[in-house]
Design goal:
Elements lengths: L1 E4 L8 E4 L1 E2 L6 E10 L2 H8 L8 E2 L3 E9 L11 E4 L9 H4 L21 E3 L2 E2 L1 E2 L9 E5 L3 E3 L6 H21 L7 E5 L3 H13 L3 E5 L3 H9 L4 E3 L6 H8 L4 E6 L4 H9 L1 E9 L13 H5 L3 E4 L7 H13 L5 H4 L2 E3 L4 H10 L5 E4 L3
Parallel strand pairs: 5-10, 13-14, 13-16, 14-15, 16-17, 17-18, 19-20
Antiparallel strand pairs: 1-2, 3-8, 4-6, 4-11, 4-20, 6-7, 7-12, 8-9
């Protein structure tokens, strides 16, 4: 099968043929239909986050189940599925306390000594984030995918797998937004736009979108933002504090930069919460001052929106099917696997909401 491979950190991805193994007892073989380009992939491609190479990135995907292992009970051949990088074991302390997104059990991967899932000749090709979705097929643990309504378009379904699960999950799960509360979303890429849309669905009283790109601020308005601010303006924090008479209940950082995380903290009202979603540089530190703490302000991370994806993803699909969740606006373009490097160059320039690779079926 064809796949996009990180051969060398900092270099363009290489399209090459690789082999994929047969499903083990708890594994699922999926024919990939669509996969979104996510900034998290770019962190690994550019070397900001270390990972062994060669490796196939890609994690925001949807497809059709082709084969299942002998012990698989959650999906069957022919099912349409969305994948999710927060694969879970189901019985560790995080899973049994409802925090499945924090599961790091090795049970969802093949153990050392077992044949690798991906190979090229005699060489192991590393699987990234349990998925490696920039490929015509995926071989994953059954707890890394969930079946969805077959009427759901698979290109829209793909972006639910990361951007929407993260952005909407932050609103619904991590923030537990109460109708009428104020929200500021900093960074209006795929994740940020999903958070804006989810805040509208949840009944936020005011939704402020902050981004340096005018076109992204306009997209945020389409998705439910009541106000927009240039995130790089010298007085961005002051503008938001003034328009909300003291700050927001929830500030969501959705880009992964020190300056945007600092902005999220600055615009909180007393008792407000800053939620960091972006993959920050590894040496980044975000904090609250003494007066912030005395004012009851809170700071939290929310990996993948603290999702419970077997429950959350079908609900998000239902939101789209009922016309509540606007995935069409989030998708900027549809491209082929061969155009993947051009897609990431556009992402580096900050000019695209979400590019989605469409695979030939």
């Amino acid at each position: 099968m064809k796949a996009a491979i990180i051969e060398e950190v900092g270099k363009p991805l290489v399209i090459d043929d690789i082999s994929i193994a047969k499903p083990g007892p708890h594994e699922v073989l999926i024919r990939t239909s669509a996969c979104g380009l996510c900034h998290s992939d770019l962190h690994f491609i550019d070397g900001a986050y270390p990972h062994p190479v060669p490796a196939v990135p890609g994690h925001e995907a949807a497809g059709v189940v082709e084969q299942v292992g002998s012990e698989v009970r959650t999906v069957k051949p022919g099912d349409h599925v969305v994948t999710c990088l927060s694969a879970f074991c189901g019985h560790c302390q995080f899973c049994v306390t409802g925090r499945m997104a924090l599961c790091v059990s090795g049970e969802t991967r093949r153990a050392k000594g077992e044949a690798p899932r991906l190979t090229r000749g005699d060489q192991t090709v590393n699987q990234m984030l349990n998925l490696s979705a920039f490929a015509e097929q995926m071989l994953i643990h059954e707890h890394a995918c969930v079946a969805i309504d077959k009427d759901m378009p698979l290109d829209r379904a793909a972006v639910i797998g990361c951007a929407v699960t993260t952005g909407a999950g932050a609103i619904f799960n991590a923030c537990k937004l109460v109708p009428g509360e104020t929200v500021a979303v900093i960074g209006c890429g795929g994740v940020g736009l999903a958070a804006v849309n989810a805040a509208k669905i949840a009944g936020a009283g005011r939704i402020i979108a902050a981004d340096p790109m005018p076109e992204k601020r306009e997209l945020a308005k389409v998705l439910g933002a009541t106000d927009v601010v240039d995130a790089l303006a010298d007085d961005a924090a002051g503008q938001i504090v003034d328009m909300t008479s003291g700050g927001v209940d929830h500030a969501i950082e959705a880009v992964g930069r020190q300056a945007s995380a600092d902005l999220a903290v600055k615009i909180l009202k007393r008792g407000g919460t800053a939620t960091i979603l972006g993959m920050m540089p590894l040496d980044c530190k975000v904090g609250l001052g003494a007066m912030d703490l005395l004012g009851g302000k809170k700071l939290q991370g929310a990996i993948m929106g603290m999702n419970r994806f077997p429950v959350d993803l079908p609900r998000l699909v239902d939101f789209y099917m009922r016309g509540m969740l606007d995935l069409d606006t989030i998708i900027a373009e549809r491209i082929s696997l061969g155009e993947i490097n051009d897609g990431f160059e556009k992402m580096r320039g900050g000019h695209s909401a979400r590019s989605v690779i469409m695979f030939e079926q």
